[in-house]
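Hey,
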Amino acid sequence: MSIAKTVIDAQIVLEFLRQHFDKKVATIAYMQGGETSQAFSFSVRDKAFVIRINTSLDTFEKDKYAYEHFSSEALPIPTFIQLGQVNEHFCFAITEKVAGNALTTFNEETREKIRHLSNTS
């Protein structure tokens, strides 16, 4: 089964952020990675954030659940700020930007160790 990655113009995302998050968002930067969502980083008042865009809220709702129920020192999950609709075609999730690596960048052995940590937390 092939899943297409969401594609949205950066200018649409920037205008959305200025209107619905903070007028002081000056620029956004495209982020690599992500299987189905398109992600951009941005800053407001010296605080860094990430906005991910997808055609469905499902993934973002799961991410929010994971943050609320499993985030710990052993399994840090970025603070969830907001989720909702950009327009009739796109949904969004905003989280704080944190240093680290995406789970998909690790080899299978490391991912298995991480899964084990999350099951013991």
